[in-house]
Amino acid sequence: MVRLGPKAPQHRKGTFTDVPQGLLEEISHLEQILTVPASKLQEITKHFITELDKGLSKKGGNIPMIPGWVLDFPTGSETGDYLAIDLGGTNLRVVLVKLLGNSKFDTTQSKYALPKHMRTATADELWGFIAECLQKFVHEFFPEGVSAPLPLGFTFSYPASQDNITQGILQRWTKGFDIDGVEGKDVVPMLQTAIEKLNVPVKVVALINDTTGTLVASMYADVETKMGLIFGTGVNGAYYDTCGDIPKLEGRLCDDVSNDTPMAINCEYGSFDNEHLVLPRTKYDLQIDAESPRPGQQSFEKMISGYYLGEVLRLILLELADEKKLIFAGQDLKKMHEPFVMDTSFPAKIEEDPFENLSDVQDLFDEKLGIQTTVPERKVIRRLAELIGERSSRLSVCGIAAICQKRGYKTAHCAADGSVYQKYPGFKERAAQGLRDIFGWADNEEDPIVIVPAEDGSGVGAAVIAALTEKRLDQGKSVGVKI
């Protein structure tokens, strides 16, 4: 099945006759540097393919290309009851996934708030808390008990090294966690020990990344799926390669894994072009990078992800106000000088303003920044938000196009999740147009490669991966490197 992709929106109709000449000239310049033409998208995509290949090589590259140790495609026929947990920054989510076959499933879930001290608690307290939540969940939904331990897929969204799908060695804590005695160790036996201490009938069978989960969950529900994607605070993609095309695994695979065996790859491609060879970075991008906690890293992510879109807008507006004296004359801009005071909801709300005089934009700047705006200023702000949103959307699809070209996909459903994909106005239409521009498709034809809504990666995906892993282990097949 192919779908007609959404058409890109035209920028807001309206006249700029009341905008002063100096401001018009600045907007014209900003349009030039923030617009990414088809030829540039094609150039970026071509370089992206070489970077993906480099990440799979023995030497490695900027893009990590992490093997996810999911060595089978889901068929949609998997059945059974599976648990999934997702340890986030504020909650632990526990999900019961009933895989029904025929690409159908049911889910039941509960959320358990992490106690405030948990991010800096002891390792025993953390794993004990998770085990207690699992105990409550199992008692509630299986009051009569279970005949065999429930298999669990553990979504662990922290940097972890894996030589097989049943382990995850924590490299470093993120999201404000700082718990001693966990970094450098395998988290799976720690959790399993805590579970067994409470006699909870649960066995951890797979540790996964949420983007890989998005890929597998979406493939279970839709056989046309070729990619799992996250467009949110960060950006990432996952797809299936073949083991014979992953040089860095040469000599490490078990005998039952052939060159044709599929391997889920968690790209972590937010770090694309850290060498700064092709991305059209502006001085605002350079400033954001220089002032970030890790300059020179995550170059792609810093241009397109939800975390940074409002900051690009803030820096441009500050330049127009402070240096060029073209907007906000005589006003106190102290609030606007705070880094990241304008989150991504700013440009999103600006683009969503339905009124001709953009009164919602006025209310937004008044309430959040204490700044009064004129109608011509609001028109300029609106145009800047459009340019920033469109640039993000168009650059975002270069990773999709690169994977499709690398793998030779002529048709594909690319399953996407994340706040930018779900909520940012115009993202879907602009991304679809970006793909048309890269591949040269005609506007009046059906798009053979389309972005579609993803299934729940950290819930359904973790469960399907647990099912695939359990089946492999039952068949005596390997789920990791040679020991």
UniProtKB/TrEMBL annotation:
Q: Start and end of every Hexokinase C-terminal domain?
A: 226-468
Alphabetically ordered keywords of this record? ATP-binding, Glycolysis, Kinase, Nucleotide-binding, Transferase
Hexokinase N-terminal domain sequence ranges = 27-220
Which Pfam families does the annotation name?
Answer: Hexokinase_1, Hexokinase_2
Q: What is its EC number?
A: 2.7.1.-
Give the pathway annotation: Carbohydrate degradation; glycolysis; D-glyceraldehyde 3-phosphate and glycerone phosphate from D-glucose: step 1/4; Carbohydrate metabolism; hexose metabolism
- GO MF term set: ATP binding; D-glucose binding; fructokinase activity; glucokinase activity; mannokinase activity
Q: Which proteins does it associate with, and in what oligomeric form? A: Monomer.
Could you identify this protein by its name? Phosphotransferase
